[in-house]
Amino acid sequence: MKMKYGLYCMGSLVNTYDDAIEAHNDAVYAQEESGVPHEVREIQ
Questions:
Q1: Mind giving me the DSSP string for 17-40?
Q2: Which one, of 2, 42, 1, lies nearest residue 24 by Cα?
Q3: What is this structure's pTM?
Q4: Beta carbons of 20 and 28 less than 8 angstroms apart
């Protein structure tokens, strides 16, 4: 089963990804730009 990953900001799903590395890179970029913590979680 292929995993999906969600990018979350303040508990809200912002975007979904098929690739964990891409999701992580976007989370780092979004956090640097906004100053607000973002996180990546697996979606089941």
A1: ES-HHHHHHHHHHHHHHHSS-EEE
A2: 42
A3: 0.88
A4: no
Q: Domain residues for 28?
A: 4-43
Query: Which amino acid would we find at residue 22?
Result: E
18: alpha, beta or left? (left if phi > 0; alpha if psi -120 to 50):
alpha
Place of tokens 């303040």: 10
List the structure tokens of 7. Answer: 């990018």
Q: How far apart are CA 44 and CA 32, in angstroms?
A: 27
**Res 1 pLDDT > 90:** no
Q: Domains in the chain: how many in total?
A: 1
